[in-house]
Amino acid sequence: MKRRPRRYGLLAVSPLVVLALLFVALSCLTGSLSSVPLLVVFLLASVYALAITRGVPLEERIAHFSRGAGNPDLLMMVWIFVLAGAFAASAKEMGAITATVELTLRCLPASMILPGLFIAACFISISVGTSVGTVVALVPVAAGVAERSGMEPALVVAAVVGGSFFGDNLSFISDTTVAATRSMGCELKDKFRANIQLVLPAALLTILLYVALGSASEPVPVSGHLQWIKVLPYVVVLLTAVMGMNVLSVLLLGCVLTGAIGFYTGDYNFSAWLTSMAGGIVGMGELIVVSMLAGGLLELVRYNGGIVYLIHRLTRRVRTKRGAELSIAALVSMTNLCTANNTVAILSVGRLAKEVSERYGVDKRKGASILDTFSCTVQGLIPYGAQLLMAGGLSGLNPVGIISYLYYPMLMGGVALLAIGLRYPRKYG
């Protein structure tokens, strides 16, 4: 008979606490949070998670860890990492990033770079319904703009990452939107109307903040000649993404275009094209390993009953409608910490969230908005989420160093908490 592990309560979620403590301890030792080696942090936390999993042989613990590391959703992200690395490297070698950055600087004055990139990310993400696709399309350009303008790279990249969650949270074709509305039993349009009242103030505040930050920026000189043909790969990538093409197909098409244009302009030959793509894939290797370690770690948290424990603890003292709304927010937030996937987090607690909302009279439209908003808030602020890992890999930055500049997810969560406290919007309160 197959043995089952004991349920450890608070001990089951302790790997996440250890993960956070390791970040703090190593940042003190290295002198900077952005210099913390992610591989080491997740390796140590994973070893700890394996050690506290008792009642089953070590081989079975490792099997469960490996199952999490090889989760189909995670592996899909790995394939995106691979193709994104290949596309970014070949585009850079061919001159596509330089040309696109040049075009961006011609179209946007220095003072409008930050708000312009944020608004572009908002528009693209609401069109494609995915934060990951938006990050893949815009982060290389943002990193190039930061290099040319002399702005803080993490700040510029964070503007794109933050904006990507605007559409992830609101788009009718977003996985999180569909999951939230189905879980709570409401219509997409009704959830959108309730949701936009929570997140639009946060987006407007973010734009104003970026305008203020950009007001002191010095003009960026541009070259006299722009090679328009080299902009084509990014134009095609953005257009096909907005049209709804699968992100893997988009990236593959981008790789082919960079090769074809590179041959035409003489920037590289066939061998150099292959070498550049291989280099880009290798450059994503660290983040691929980190994402797999995170997947294994989170699977052990789930296996040991961590999610069940959190659900029990966060719902047992609910007495009022406001308390019910806060418990729904806490449920999806903590579950997102344990899964690093906002769609999975919503699906995991959706049924319970609906029961809580019905018991305490929470409007199902606001309940769906709370589920989606807080899952996107947490997803946008965890360094082991796909979006920040991708942004770090494409920009050459440590994902942890980007977090402090993610103003939109912070404001989105803050405004949503304030809305619960003030019973806003009154229509759904």
Strand content: under 5%
Q: Helix/strand/pairing class, anyone?
A: mainly alpha
Q: Count of helical segments?
A: 21
Number of strands: 0
Average residue pLDDT: 90
State Rg. 22 Å
Based on CA inertia axes, which overall geometry fits?
Answer: globular
Order of helices and strands: HHHHHHHHHHHHHHHHHHHHH
Sheet with the most strands, sense and barrel status: none
Could you name the ranges where pLDDT drops below 50 across 5 or more consecutive residues? Answer: none
End-to-end C-alpha gap: 51 Å
Percent in helix: over 70%
Structure write-up:
With 429 residues, this protein is mainly α. It has a domain at 73-170 and 187-286. The chain has helices spanning 10-30, 38-52, 58-69, 72-94, 96-107, 113-128, 131-149, 153-170, 175-184, 188-214, 232-242, 247-265, 270-283, 285-303, 306-315, 321-339, 342-360, 364-379, 386-395, 399-403, 407-421. The longest helix has 27 residues, at 188-214.
Please outline what is shown here.
The chain is mostly helical and 429 residues long. It has 21 helices and no strands.
List strands and helices in order, with pairings.
Blueprint: H1 10-30, H2 38-52, H3 58-69, H4 72-94, H5 96-107, H6 113-128, H7 131-149, H8 153-170, H9 175-184, H10 188-214, H11 232-242, H12 247-265, H13 270-283, H14 285-303, H15 306-315, H16 321-339, H17 342-360, H18 364-379, H19 386-395, H20 399-403, H21 407-421
Helix pairs in contact: 1-2, 1-14, 1-15, 2-14, 3-14, 4-12, 4-13, 4-14, 4-19, 5-7, 6-7, 6-8, 6-10, 7-8, 7-19, 8-10, 8-19, 9-17, 9-18, 10-18, 10-21, 11-12, 15-16, 16-17, 16-18, 17-18, 18-21
